[in-house]
Amino acid sequence: MGIFDIFKKKKTDSTFPENELEQSLKQAASNISAQKDFYQKLLWNQLYVLTSEQSVSEEGIHTLEKDTTVQFVTFEEGQIPVFTSTNRIFDKGIIKEEVPYLSLKGQDLFGVAKGATFILNPYSNYGKELIPEEIENLMDGTIYDKIDEHEIENKKYQEFNEIFERAGKRQEGLILLDGYLRKQLNSSEKVRLEESIKDFQKCLEIAPNHWQTMVLMAKSFQRLERHAEALEQLESAFNTEKENHTIPMEASLEAMHLKDLDKALCYSEESLKRKPNDFALMGNHAMNLLIAQKDNEAKKMIEKAITMKPNDSVNKNIESIVKGVLSGNRKRPTFEDAIK
Question: For the chain, how big is the Rg over CA atoms in Å?
């Protein structure tokens, strides 16, 4: 969990916000830029921390003298509850009676409780966990650099999402994620796909390992019959994403377009490793085996597929082709036959 993931934004308490610190906390829940102001106010404003009965003689604002020992109230897991105002102590009526507390500037509180985890406003609708690393970064000032880095990353991925969505819209009606469109592209449709490729390339500049972008770019290349480039993107996706079975399946089909039988077999086999009991993948691999003249393996593979799904029309056709080749009654299929 990142430092800034633990801001909580819900329905506001009736008296919230009632001071500058609470106002900045509210703003920081939805605005990264406001987090700097929140942390500054957290250091220099008064915070309220519960104490045991024996720690102080009366509640209120205190200055801790050197070597003073104070026993803070803690939750079961060791976190120290701390509040941005006295009203926050009694939010939602969880604490019903007066309790002893100390009020310290944030800087002083964090200094006397080094290494502790705090829960800011634990009973409120706006709260935050303050972990030791975060407090240490706050005390030495490095937290502001981290906020800047976080804001840059956030803007970067907002840009990524906008470009990715735009690229997808350019592809609408022109590609299929599971198969091929046979319709001939007109010039304007080709331009749309070319523009989608440019957008996907921008996405990969922002997020180089985003395999979904690689796959969708490959689909644009595929429809433009730029099969070498399509296979290149699919191979990058294959090396990035280790579980998705459709990536090697698509790579196998592109290898067939390029008449690279070794790669076609390798990828159809890999797709089955990723999804061993998929009858459609079995049929695809059986056809590749048949083209590669591995007839007995092709026969066993398509028989297994038919056993799993007896009435699948595609595999029934592949079974017929395999039997025809084995009996000598029909020619062995070619690369072109495999990609029809």
Answer: 32
Confidence category of residue 182, pLDDT binned at 50, 70, 90: low
For 222-257, the pLDDT digits (tens) are 999 999 999 999 999 999 999 999 999 999 999 999
Instruction: Spell out the residues 6+ positions from residue 269 whose beta carbon is closer than 8 angstroms to its own.
Output: 285
The rounded distance, in Å, linking the Cα atoms of 112 and 118 is 13
Domain boundaries, the chain: 3-141, 156-338
- Alpha-carbon span 74 to 178, nearest angstrom: 56
Structure tokens at 110: 């964090």
Helix or strand or coil: residue 47? strand
The rounded distance, in Å, linking the Cα atoms of 4 and 119 is 14
Q: Tell which CATH classification among 1.10.760.10, 1.25.40.10, 3.30.1490.190, 3.30.750.24 matches the domain 156-338.
A: 1.25.40.10
Residue type at 278?
D
117, 79 contact by CB (below 8 A): yes
What are the pLDDT digits (tens) for 190-219? 999 999 999 999 999 999 999 999 999 999
pTM above 0.70, yes or no: no
DSSP string, 89-152: HTGGGSS-S---EEEEEHHHHHHHTTT--EEESTTSSS-EEE-HHHHHHHHHTTHHHHHHHHHH
